[in-house]
Automatic annotation (TrEMBL):
Cellular component, GO annotation: membrane
Name by which UniProt lists this protein: Na+/H+ antiporter
Signal peptide: none
Record family assignment: Belongs to the monovalent cation:proton antiporter 2 (CPA2) transporter (TC 2.A.37) family.
Top-rank lineage group of the source organism: Bacteria
Domain Cation/H+ exchanger transmembrane: 2-109
Listed PANTHER family: NAPA-TYPE SODIUM/HYDROGEN ANTIPORTER, SODIUM ION_PROTON EXCHANGER (EUROFUNG)
Length: 127
């Protein structure tokens, strides 16, 4: 557990946030790639969860939406790529931004998928 915390902190500390400045024309490439990665990550994971299961009793959209924040493997590859110099800083920041965005977008999307309009006491009493 301690090593994973150190890993995530080290990846965040190595990220060059100056690449996120959209007023510099060279930085726009990384922001466009980050936006593309965010869209592909969300659409890919939701569609994989939706089409992987055929049982109608399973909330397939909920499964796909629940897979959205899975991005630690992307951080591992971003860390390896930036350490070896294989990834330019714009791509490295795009991957980190995608992981952060999908992590923060998934809870509101899960609330939309799993409608919790009933209070917890009503859910217990309905059994």
């Amino acid at each position: 557990m301690v090593f994973s915390t150190v890993f995530f902190v080290s990846i965040g500390a190595k990220t060059d946030l100056s690449v996120l400045n959209p007023s510099v024309p060279a930085n726009r490439e990384g922001l466009i790639i980050a936006g593309f990665l965010i869209i592909v990550a969300i659409v890919g994971k939701v569609s994989a969860g939706f089409f992987a299961f055929t049982d109608e009793k399973i909330n397939r959209l909920g499964i796909g939406t629940g897979m959205i924040p899975r991005g630690e493997v992307g951080l591992v590859f971003a860390g390896l790529g930036s350490a070896t110099g294989a990834l330019p800083p714009s791509i490295d920041v795009a991957i980190v931004l995608m992981v952060i965005a999908t992590t923060f977008l998934s809870p509101p999307l899960l609330r939309l998928v799993f409608d919790t309009s009933e209070s917890p006491s009503e859910l217990v009493q309905s059994d």
